[in-house]
């Protein structure tokens, strides 16, 4: 039987990327997925500039940009307070130097890339790098030697049962990870409060760069994507989801009209919906152990969190680069496996990573913004540098703890006192405040 250096289960953002990076180092890699490609997966597929930078570092960004629109500025409107900015290049460089030791390939643009486009490019890049790719292959068992995972048993598309062995098995198999379930890995730091999200694809209008709107306990996003369409998304607190679901199409438009009336108007009068409305009700966050004897987890398998900051794919790329670097050192015989995995773990379990996980999970509760938070957004309007830093913080480029540290907020709030006077938020403020209390879809 052929012995691989690594078997990767899952061939999307985390799996195909990890397989590609390990194969480029010259290792023998098998990557399997029960899906066939091109295909979509439940995702609204927004990629932050550091996500795009990973693609550029790996030499596949041009392929993406050939078919996908990209921009640098983002408009964020919180309870009627508009902010426009971009993730600063110097913060992107700092991010890569801190996490990966070099800042090659940094780009400032973001994009919304359909998964049927992106995942196909990644699978092809893995194959081109020399990884053996088997799609339509469902892993049914992990082969163990004592407590060590040493291989997989699975079924091919034509119904054959196949067994393969490797020095390490990488679970890149998503939030319902087969590897995690089979090994009975616990979930911890679970965050049951999350958002419901519904989205679809519309042609017929061009609203420019991405817009994110939040009003009361609801939010919406409009981002140009492939095939000259726009991804239009609404989300809100999961405790409102049952009522929302009673009339998905009606409530989708109702939510848009409430959160961003001008966007709702364009979608209603100029937009043609090209696909059905997709939705998800459960995005409860959790962490799982990162590694053990003969196995390691990457991407959603190890850490799942709500879509409200659109970060999972970028994090999957981050994990791929970190784990491939760590495993490469071990596979080349430079360090023992424990030392390699401890290096991966220390980067993945940093204070910054924990703070960002908490930031996402707290936002996902969709609590109304407090007065001091709204004041902060007003203060940012006069300060482009801090607006850009806020956007970078929201996208996990800059550390949450630095932007939200008391001294920074104090300075900004001081400035807010001067700039907030007379700032117009929604005319119908009473409706916004009512929405803090009442389920709009009840
Ligand atoms: C509603 C929603 C919106 C989102 N929007 C965004 C966004 O805008 N931006 C963003 O960055 N992230 C977003 N995310 C998160 C993002 O989709 C995930 O973080 C990302 O897909 C994780 O990639 P992954 O490779 O780890 O897992 P996945 O993409 O889930 O891929 C796992 C793969 O493993 C395969 N697999 C599983 N079990 C087996 C098995 N037993 N045998 C063989 N193959 C197997 C599956 O077929 C699948 O192809 C969103 C998530 C949700 C739910």
TrEMBL record:
Keyword Signal: no
Classification of source organism: Bacteria, Bacillati, Actinomycetota, Actinomycetes, Micromonosporales
Protein name listed in UniProt: NAD(P)/FAD-dependent oxidoreductase
Protein EC: 1.-.-.-
Chain ranges passing through the membrane: none
InterPro entries the record matches: FAD-bd, FAD/NAD-bd_sf, PheA/TfdB_FAD_monoxygenase
FAD-binding domain mapped to chain residues: 4-351
Keywords: Oxidoreductase
GO MF entry, a single one: oxidoreductase activity
Record carries keyword ATP-binding: no
């Amino acid at each position: 039987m052929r012995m691989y250096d690594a078997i990767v289960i899952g061939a999307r953002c985390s799996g195909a990327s990890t397989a590609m990076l390990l194969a480029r180092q010259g290792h023998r890699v098998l990557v399997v997925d029960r899906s066939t490609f091109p295909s979509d997966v439940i995702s609204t597929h927004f990629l932050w500039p550091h996500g795009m930078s990973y693609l550029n570092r790996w030499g596949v960004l041009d392929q993406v940009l050939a078919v996908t629109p990209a921009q640098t500025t983002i408009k964020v409107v919180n309870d009627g307070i508009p902010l426009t900015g971009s993730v600063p290049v110097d913060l992107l460089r700092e991010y890569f130097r801190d996490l990966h030791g070099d800042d090659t390939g940094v780009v400032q643009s973001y994009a919304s890339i359909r998964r049927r486009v992106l995942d196909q490019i990644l699978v092809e890049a893995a194959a081109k790098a020399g990884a053996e790719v088997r799609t339509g292959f469902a892993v049914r068992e992990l082969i163990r030697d004592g407590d060590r995972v040493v291989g997989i048993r699975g079924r091919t598309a034509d119904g054959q049962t196949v067994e393969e062995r490797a020095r390490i098995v990488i679970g890149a198999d998503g939030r319902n990870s087969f590897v995690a379930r089979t090994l009975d890995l616990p979930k911890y730091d679970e965050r049951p409060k999350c958002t419901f999200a519904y989205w679809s694809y519309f042609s017929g209008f061009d609203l420019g760069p991405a817009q994110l709107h939040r009003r009361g306990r609801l939010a919406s996003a409009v981002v140009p994507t492939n095939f000259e369409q726009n991804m239009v998304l609404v989300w809100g607190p999961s405790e409102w989801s049952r009522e929302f679901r009673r009339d998905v199409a009606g409530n989708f438009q109702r939510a848009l009209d409430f959160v961003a009336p001008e966007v709702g108007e364009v979608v209603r009068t100029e937009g043609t919906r090209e696909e059905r409305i997709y939705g998800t009700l459960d995005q409860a966050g959790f962490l799982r152990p990162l590694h053990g004897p003969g196995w390691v987890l990457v991407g959603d398998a190890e850490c799942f969190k709500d879509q409200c900051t659109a970060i999972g794919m970028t994090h999957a790329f981050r994990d791929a680069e970190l784990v491939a670097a760590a495993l490469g050192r071990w596979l080349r015989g430079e360090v023992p496996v424990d030392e390699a995995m401890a290096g991966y773990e220390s980067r993945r379990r940093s204070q910054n990573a924990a703070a960002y996980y908490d930031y996402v999970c707290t936002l996902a509760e969709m609590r109304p913004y407090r007065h001091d938070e709204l004041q902060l957004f007003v203060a940012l309007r006069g300060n482009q540098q801090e607006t850009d830093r806020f956007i970078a913080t929201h996208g996990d480029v800059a550390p949450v703890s630095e932007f939200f540290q008391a001294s920074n907020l104090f300075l900004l709030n001081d400035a807010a006192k001067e700039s907030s006077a007379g700032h117009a938020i929604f005319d119908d403020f009473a409706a916004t405040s009512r929405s803090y209390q009442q389920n709009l879809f009840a």
